[in-house]
Design goal:
By secondary structure, the protein is of the alpha/beta class. It folds into five domains: 8-181, Type I PLP-dependent aspartate aminotransferase-like (Major domain) (Aspartate Aminotransferase, domain 2, 3-Layer(aba) Sandwich); 217-326, Alpha-Beta Complex (Aspartate Aminotransferase, domain 1), CATH 3.90.1150.10; 398-632, Aspartate Aminotransferase, domain 2; 650-819, Aspartate Aminotransferase, domain 1 (Alpha-Beta Complex); 825-852, no CATH class. It is 36% helix and 13% strand. The chain has 28 helices and 24 strands. The strands form five sheets. It has a seven-stranded mixed beta sheet with strand order 1-7-6-5-4-2-3. Strand 17 (511-517), helix 16 (529-538) and strand 18 form a beta-alpha-beta unit. Helix 7 crosses helix 8 (302-311). The longest helix is centred in the first third of the chain and has 39 residues, at 211-249.
Length: 853
């Protein structure tokens, strides 16, 4: 059944091209078959940066890309799993010449394939929704909704679809459940995709997401509302129509196809026109030698338009427009309403908007209230001085494909930070293109595969991954076309050397890589890391070091000096870019000299893989793109640049030393109350440590979730729960916290342990204790009824500091079972990778899931 809109959306993917890649993966998973339906059609009118990323993704997992005009596509063999078109297309046309999108969609469906539409949210304020012509998935970017261009990012990508395909959606989906008081509560309904919580359920490697940018776009829509957004969209369309009118009136040939904001104009010499427009303060796109593209946006003024037309030799243009020019013609106009939820129709003044945002802020337990002890997330201070450049117009208001002579400052900064990161990591070259840590993993593995192919060893496809590795590693390896083989860990948390050697021997002829995290996710430095790396190299494999825990390496050692070949860096962790509720992130990868020529390339900006990698050994190559923009989320690179420059070598080293010191101090303080799971032979951990709550659960029934929820009453965010070991809490204090805050957290945990002892002694039953009834909301404490065995004071103010700076949780304990009945992902566990006899296509397409059941 065709509906006017899609009911489900993931609104914090990495960018438009990545969202398109995820949608292609969905099509292959849903419709692909072993040996059949592995073709995917890509319209030649798609944005070139999206085409390049799709080709990179498809090439790794044996999806055959077919490019061309959709009206010419032969579907008679029923061997396509899906297709993607651009709406409006990259040349500005709303409907490509030839077959309509509606009839093309019907032909796809009749052949058993799916339809993806890459679209523009601002255009859709005026245009018909893709759902109205039967599309299955819509993807795009939310950048136009109030987010700066920022030389390419960060921008929130989106993917929306129907209920039928909701369980295959990547990223984070917020759903509705109920809390302990029966009140509605929001929760991450698809958190089984969050690999750092339940990695064995992951099919996508999406981990870092553009949550902050999604919130910025949402706030833009809340403030403007449906009428405001329609007005903005209409004005953009009117600007395009005035431009079209004045150009055609003065003898220029413009494309006749219906358009929203973009025109193609025939000229004698495209380069000459671009140069003249640039001199006038405007950038136009060169389509070919005799065609330029012009696009209108919200920020364009009448003065800007006059300057643009002046560059075309039109000295006295008529800039007049009436209301009729804001409306689309020819039956393309949207008929269904937008932004119908009350929240988009309530806050249209600055005071109302300010109070609404403050209300939301009050619900968040953030670093401005207390330390965030999430293990393996490095939630350190993001200093104001580091953040300031992000708001500068010369950082935010630059297009990613602007002419090179306009972005020399950006290029200098990127080259400079890449050189610094090369020194820090001990590698020859660095690429800033990956816009998340998991994307960095994928980019590093693709780099390894391209290198192996260049040596005539493209058959090598086995990736060894210890159980202690980060959760995104198996998904990234599979996306890169590798077969995952899991390596055991010993009782101390180190890689099991005997199992490693046995699996190296078994797969030596096909060994491509080892993915290892150092320090491991168990919070220990692998004492035999050099021996591990040497063993892999001796077998002809490459070593990928997951750099998520670089906060324990910087200034003390480096992946390059240890012997790794490639490592990604989470700039949103170690190098101080804020997490923003899950993103933005940057996953720069450093590589040894032999891998440098195989770093990611870019179809629009070839120099992205050239000298800007920070080393002479890095030369431009036609390697596949990893992100839509040549330098990924470039606008937030100044944060890490500032952090590195202000710290300097001594400060970076001291940061690492304090991170390790703080973790060991907390581990020692808490070791009497809880079991610390993994330490080295000296009884020490790295920059994070794991508390094992399984013995307490066996003795009293208290779970790690009970402790996590009770911490809210003490004013703390929970540590990482049940990862990387089920039934545990993983704590990382970082170097940002002083002794008083470390002690305050430890005091809270020790107090909670006393509450566990109250259950063990019989003072409370498990069901009666403050732990299982936590968190305690203001509504619960202030209610007229109180039937608990403990006092309201114990429930709400369990610590000495609670009254002075109380954080009130806004919802009680949420009902996970209720929430899991909506949008639950059922994906293959790690055992499928470990023992599966099926080939890669079976794992990726999901047809091997029966084994997991």
């Amino acid at each position: 059944m065709i509906t006017p809109t899609f009911p489900n959306a993931s609104f914090s993917l990495l960018d438009e091209a990545t969202a398109a890649g995820e949608a292609m993966q969905m099509c292959y998973s849903l419709k692909g078959r072993k040996g059949k339906k592995n073709k995917f059609f890509v319209s030649e009118d798609l944005h070139p940066q999206t085409i390049a990323l799709l080709e990179t993704r498809a090439g790794s997992i044996n999806i055959e890309i077919v490019r061309g005009k959709h009206s010419d596509l032969d579907l008679s063999n029923n061997d396509f799993c899906g297709a993607i078109v651009q709406y409006p297309n990259t040349y500005g046309s709303i409907e490509s010449p030839g077959e309509t999108y509606e009839s093309f969609t019907k032909r796809l469906h009749d052949s058993g394939a799916m339809m993806i539409v890459a679209t523009d949210l601002m255009a859709l304020a005026k245009l018909k929704s893709p759902a109205t012509f039967g599309a299955d998935i819509a993807v795009g970017s939310a950048q136009r909704l109030g987010v700066p261009m920022g030389f390419g990012g960060p921008h929130a990508g989106f993917l929306s679809t129907s209920e039928a395909y909701a369980r295959k959606m990547p990223g984070r989906i917020i759903g509705v459940t109920i809390d302990s008081q029966g009140q509605p509560a929001l929760r991450m309904a698809m958190q089984t995709r969050e690999q750092h919580i339940r990695r064995d359920k992951a099919t996508s490697n999406i981990c870092t997401a553009q949550a902050l940018l999604a919130n910025m776009a949402a706030a833009y829509c809340v403030y403007h509302g449906p009428e405001g957004l329609a007005d903005i969209s209409g004005r953009i369309h009117a600007l395009a129509r005035v431009t079209h009118r004045e150009l055609t009136k003065n003898g220029f040939k413009c494309a006749d196809a219906p358009y929203f904001d973009t025109l193609c104009v025939a000229v004698d010499n495209a380069q000459s026109v671009q140069d003249k427009c640039s001199e006038a303060g405007c950038n136009v796109r060169i389509i070919d030698d005799t065609t330029v593209g012009i696009s209108m946006g919200e920020g364009i003024t009448g003065e800007d338009l006059a300057s643009l037309l002046g560059a075309f030799g039109i000295s006295d243009p008529d800039l007049s427009a009436d209301e009729s020019m804001t409306a689309l013609e020819g039956g393309y106009a949207r008929e269904c309403a937008i932004l119908t939820h009350p929240i988009f129709n309530s806050h249209h003044s600055e005071t109302k908007m300010m109070r609404y945002l403050k209300k939301l802020e009050n619900k968040d337990l953030a670093l401005n209230h207390s330390m965030i002890s999430l293990g393996s997330c490095t939630m350190k201070l993001n200093a104001v001085s580091e953040m300031l450049p992000v708001s500068w117009p010369k950082i935010g208001n630059i297009h990613p494909f602007a002419p090179t002579d306009q972005v020399k400052g950006y290029h200098n900064m990127i080259e400079d930070i890449n050189k610094d990161l090369s020194v820090i990591t001990g590698f020859a070259a660095v690429s800033a293109q990956p816009n998340s840590g998991a994307t960095g993993e994928f980019a590093g593995l693709v780099t390894i595969r391209n290198y192996l192919k260049s040596k005539g060893e493209g058959h090598r496809n086995v990736c060894l991954i210890p159980k202690s590795a980060h959760g995104t590693n198996p998904a990234s390896a599979t996306m890169a076309g590798m077969k995952v083989v899991v390596v055991d860990n010993d009782d101390e948390g180190n890689t099991d050397m005997a199992d490693l050697q046995a699996k190296i021997d078994k797969h030596s002829d096909n060994l491509a890589a080892l993915m290892i995290t150092y320090p491991s996710t168990f919070g220990v430095f692998e004492e035999k890391i050099v021996e591990i790396i040497d063993a892999v190299h001796d077998a002809g494999g490459q070593v990928y070091m997951d750099g998520a825990n670089m906060n324990a390496q910087v200034g003390l050692t480096s992946p390059g000096s240890i012997g790794a070949d490639v490592c990604h860096l989470n700039l949103h962790k170690t190098f101080c870019i804020p997490h923003g509720g899950g993103g933005p992130g940057v996953g720069s990868i450093g590589v040894a000299a032999h891998l440098a020529p195989f770093l990611p390339g870019h179809s629009v900006v070839p120099e992205a893989s050239g000298p800007l990698c920070g080393a002479d050994v890095c030369v431009p190559k036609s390697n596949g793109a990893i992100a839509a923009a040549p330098f990924g989320s470039a606008a937030i690179l100044p944060i890490s640049w500032m952090y590195i420059k202000m710290c300097g070598p001594d400060g970076l080293k001291k940061s690492t030393e304090f991170a390790i010191l703080n973790a060991n101090y907390m581990a020692k303080r808490l070791s009497g109350a809880f079991d610390v799971l993994y330490v080295n032979k000296n009884g020490q951990c790295a920059h994070e440590f794991i508390l094992d709550l399984r013995p307490l659960k066996a003795a009293t029934g208290v779970s790690e979730e009970d402790v996590a929820k009770r911490l809210q009453d003490y004013g703390f965010h929970s540590p990482t729960m049940s990862w990387p070991v089920t039934g545990t809490l993983m704590i990382e204090p970082t170097e940002s916290e002083g002794l008083d805050e470390l002690d305050r957290f430890c005091d809270a945990m020790i107090s909670i342990r006393a509450e566990v002892d109250d259950i063990a002694s019989g003072k409370y039953s498990l069901e009666e204790s403050p732990l299982t009834n936590a968190p305690h909301t203001l509504e619960m404490i202030a209610g007229s009824e109180w039937d608990r065995k403990y006092s309201r004071n114990v429930g709400a103010f369990p610590a000495y500091y609670s009254r002075d700076n109380k954080f009130w949780p806004t919802v009680g304990r949420v009902d996970n079972v209720y929430g899991d009945r909506n949008l639950v992902c059922t994906c293959p566990p790690l055992s499928v990778y470990e023992d599966n006899e099926d080939d890669l296509e079976t794992i990726v397409s999901g047809t091997g899931k029966e084994k997991a059941a």
